Predict the 3D structure of the following.
Amino acid sequence: MTLNLTAEHKMLLALATKAQKNAHAPYSNFHVGAAILDENAQHHACCNVENAAYPLGQCAEAGAISAMIAAGSKQIKQILIVSPNNNFCPPCGGCRQKIAEFANAETEVHMATKSGDIKTVKFTELLPLAFGFDKKD
Ligand code: THU
């Protein structure tokens, strides 16, 4: 799977891996990185940020989405999540709903392992029938 990485995959993987190194995850010791390509061809990355009050911890995807919004963009074209091990790290249920807010039918979700294998799915495969006020079907 590592053989067919596009330049965009490589860019997202590099940015997510860089952010992952700064993860604050002293409770789970599970360091995650996420990077987004938005509709303006800008990139945004973040890591998970845990808290001693466990439920206050934030996933890497949520931080990357916040960075995208702060930069003035609104659409997730692609999002890559890099795992700390050689299993893929699919976005948690809460993050799927957070991604849904800024995704469309073309949005791609890439999951990367520590060794650089990448699996890609359409976002709609991860959260079919997503809740949203503007959904007609
Ligand atoms: N985590 C993420 O950052 N993204 C995911 O998609 C799954 C889980 C974080 C949350 C927590 O800090 C740690 O991984 C263990 O669940």
In short: The longest strand covers residues 76-82. DSSP finds four helices and five strands in the chain.
